[in-house]
Amino acid sequence: MAAGLGSRFGGVKQLARVGAGGEAFLDFSINDAVAAGFSSVVLIVRTEIETDVRAHMAELHPGMEITYVCQDHLGPERAKPWGTTHAVLSAARAINAPFSVINADDYYGAETFRLAVEELALSEPGRAANVAFEMGKTVPPRGAVTRAVVQIEGEYFSGLVETEGCERIEDGSLVAGHEAVGEDTPVSMNFWCFHPSVLDNFQSQWEQFLDKHAHEPKAEAQLPTMVNELIASGDLKVAVVRSPEQWIGITNPEDLDLAIAALSNR
After folding, report:
1. What are φ and ψ of residue 152, in 5° steps?
2. For residue 19, which phi and psi values (nearest 5 degrees)?
3. For 11-29, how does the pLDDT look when each residue is reduced to its tens digit (9 = 90+)?
4. Which of the listed CATH numbers 3.90.550.10, 1.10.150.20, 3.40.50.300, 3.30.450.20 matches domain 13-262?
């Protein structure tokens, strides 16, 4: 998913060059995914950045077959994208097999994609997975962030709790919402594995969402919300797969130098 506005970053962070070879985050993801066994790449973009994204892909992945989808073509027309569920639905015609959904502006690591391929081999209607990360490997060296803490009941994902104040304090320990937490507390960084049959569920949910929120300029149909609803209705079980990788991302301009340094040897 590469259609976000990057409002806090102040530019097209999907194409921010963070690698020693001029790679953006999505280039690392594409390379890791292909190496792990993924067979196709679908990039969800906005019309206004499609030309730039295509040029970047031609430079970094010459000859690779990539499917491009413009999220804004699905409509209704609005300045702000309609959210991650809407993004996935905009690509529905390009999806005919078990698939993963990721953010274009995050670094997930090679092992994460290998775990996803293993999970997708188990894919069937009514079953999905979230590849979760250890909180200690997602917080910056300084400053607090918000993380989606994964809730687990038995063997399965039961929801997310958006938790503010996730940070490493002076003694090196972690806190989240002013409470001490373990390094391995699972958090979702929006890496999902789905069977294509879930698209019918998402379509129904999107139509219901649009009926209620069509005239709200900032309302978004987000994947975690829709997944939670499907879990609650009994239509979906979501396994939790734990990645050992170091997650890297950028939200604000000052994060760029940290990302470049972290990826210098990747």
Report:
1. -125, 135
2. -95, 160
3. 577 888 999 899 999 999 9
4. 3.90.550.10
